[in-house]
């Protein structure tokens, strides 16, 4: 079965999470840059696999309704 494509929203959600982790010192600048590049190049959901797996889930900022 073919995977559905993802959009900018899904990619940027991962990038924002990576940014928070980098700000907490959990990623080096190089690790952050590499993961962000992979996230922004993602086409299907499985392309995002592994980018956050080794990081604790930070509290998600609340979205304005």
From TrEMBL:
Residues 4-55 form the DUF1707 domain. It comes from the Bacteria. Pfam families: DUF1707. InterPro entries: DUF1707_SHOCT-like (IPR012551). This is DUF1707 domain-containing protein. It comes from Ornithinimicrobium ciconiae.
